[in-house]
Amino acid sequence: QVVESGGGVVQPGRSLRLSCVGSGFILSDYPMYWVRQAPGKGLEWVAVISHDGINKYHAQSVEGRFTVSRDTRMVYFQMNSLRPEDAAVYYCARGLSATEGHGHYVYYGMDLWGQGTTVTVSS
Amino acid sequence: QSVLTQPPSISAAPGQQVTISCSGNSFNIGNNDISWYQQVPGAAPTLLIYDNNKRPAGIPDRFSGSKSGTSATLGITGLQTGDEADYYCGTWDTSLHGWVFGGATRVTVL
């Protein structure tokens, strides 16, 4: 399973770090995603990181403010300069696989999702 | 506005069949494998179909996927009340260097 933690209530402009841990599988064998869902809205991909942490991509909506990283035990999502529109349930998900060619990566979706952690941005 | 286009809702009676379309372009569906996700209200999404038409272990064969050109389809046969959920298509977009989801299709069992 995949388990997220670190959500909470934070003021606009402040920071928060989410964490994600996997059990029952070797975390470092898989790419990992962060996907968010604002209240009443659809799924929005926000970040992906390769199994070895060498490659990472972020959605334009969070580029420069949020950063995905990982070590052998956990995946992290550092969220800075939070805005009210960042309020959402944040899901961590295990990736199926990825391929690399000409310096660019292609990812193949998520096969195991956590239950999500809620981030509320409010003054 | 989602990069991938899905119908917002579909409804059918128990036992019937429904198909959900997902339309994209050559940078996403046209060149990459698509996956489908089910999200029951109040729960996290789960993987239904990957690599266009493969089912993970535990997903019944009532669910099927196909892809042609820049479009994909999810089919559900023998509709059950437990199939009431939001369904999302998703794939990699090589021009955006990011994952893209469709805008969700709400399936209602009448």
Report on this model:
The complex is a heterodimer of chains A (123) and B (110). By secondary structure, chain A is mainly beta. Chain A starts with a strand and ends with a strand. Chain B is globular. With 110 residues, chain B is mainly beta. Chain B starts with 8 loop residues before the first strand and ends with a strand. Classes of the chains: A mainly beta (123), B mainly beta (110). Chains A and B meet through strand 5, strand 11 and strand 12 of A and strand 3, strand 7 and strand 8 of B.
What is the structure about, briefly put?
The complex is a heterodimer of chains A (123) and B (110). Chain A is mainly β and 123 residues long.
Number of strands of chain A: 13
User: Over the alpha carbons, how many angstroms does the gyration radius of chain A reach?
Assistant: 14 Å
Question: Which stretches of chain B are low in confidence, meaning pLDDT under 50 for 5 or more residues running?
Answer: none
Instruction: Using the CA coordinates, give the radius of gyration of chain B.
Output: 13 Å
User: Main beta sheet of chain A: strand number and arrangement?
Assistant: 7 strands, mixed
Instruction: Label the structural class of chain A.
Output: mainly beta
Q: What is the helix fraction of residues of chain B, given as a range?
A: under 10%
| Quaternary organisation of the protein chains | heterodimer
| Helix percent band of chain A | under 10%
SSE arrangement:
The complex is a heterodimer of chains A (123) and B (110).
Chain A: E1 2-5, E2 8-10, E3 16-22, E4 32-37, E5 43-49, E6 56-58, E7 66-70, E8 74-79, E9 88-95, E10 98-101, E11 104-107, E12 110-113, E13 117-121
Chain B: E1 9-12, E2 18-23, E3 34-39, E4 46-49, E5 63-68, E6 71-76, E7 85-93, E8 98-101, E9 105-109
Parallel strand pairs in B: 1-9
Antiparallel strand pairs in B: 2-6, 3-4, 3-7, 5-6, 7-8, 7-9
Descriptive labels:
heterodimer, A: 123 residues, mainly beta, four-stranded antiparallel beta sheet, 13 strands, 54% strand, globular, B: 110 residues, 0% helix, 45% strand
